[in-house]
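Loading example: each entry is read as two labelled lines plus one structure line.
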Amino acid sequence: MYFGLAYFLSCFTTCMGVLQIASLSPRSKYLRLFKSSYLRKTLGIVLIVISGPLFFLTDDRVVSDHSGGLDANQQAIIFAFTALFSYLLTAIISQLIWKTKIDNRLLKPFDTEICKNGSGDFNFTKLQVKNWADFRHWITGYFRP
Amino acid sequence: MGRFQALDYWVFQAINSFANKSNEIDFVLATIASDFLLPVGFGLILLHRWFSARTCEQRNRNQKLVVLSIINMTVATSFVYILNQWFFRERPFSTHEVNLIFYQPTDSSMPSNYAAGIMGLALPLLRVSLKQTILFILMVLAGSFSRIFVGIHYPADVLGGFILATLAIPITLTINRYTSSIQDHALRIARRLIPT
């Protein structure tokens, strides 16, 4: 398997695991994949533990970036992208399964401007749609006479 | 200088002589020394810290700490890059007979970019809690020891990396102070996209 893809898959698995452990915090409830905190913690630990051997035992990973490995910049970019991707996927899956809403307190200091035209209950997708609409409004505002 | 280099090589030899004795130990230490395990480990710790807060104040503190950690690592590795423009030290395997169980890096041995990077990431996080401080110190020491064990760094290279990461702290704090309002603005946008 291509080295970058293996790195991406391994980082993705661990990031999903870390997000499940982070979802134990009451502020990150909208990231939970299971209702039970015990199951989330177990899933998180299992994902973190299996990703190491999956990466290091499947091929020779001690290779330089000149012979097929990744340099520090490539690693950082892939890791950041993977963390964002796993976050988006976790939030969307959680929303689809559990219909989780984002607590209004988390939207501070934007809660009033986000919620003034809505019911006050935002799920992850609705929040991103609203963000996009506000961003468009902000950008087009510069070009309005 | 000669005496210092002799001592450096003596410590290197003492550690590296244990390599190539057991396949299992070699594999474990080469894995720890690899470019992936500890950097990803620290990345995951930062990711966890970003999301796991119980109060608004804790969230602010955690997220600012994550930013500080990344700035410090960038400053420390920039120091290494700048220093390497003038100073080059051969790797141990280029000048001596060593037990090499790693690939052969081509950049300067002194200071260790790896040690500066992971120490740079860890230093701002050290004040969080005693338990985590011990964990971070153990991670940094394990990573640095393994780099000497596998035969690609002298102990002085690692020490040089640590010193550069420590010297980066005042510059990081200065950058942090002057970019505080930009950081606050960026964090506000980030929190709207990624609610925490």
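DSSP finds five helices and no strands in chain A.
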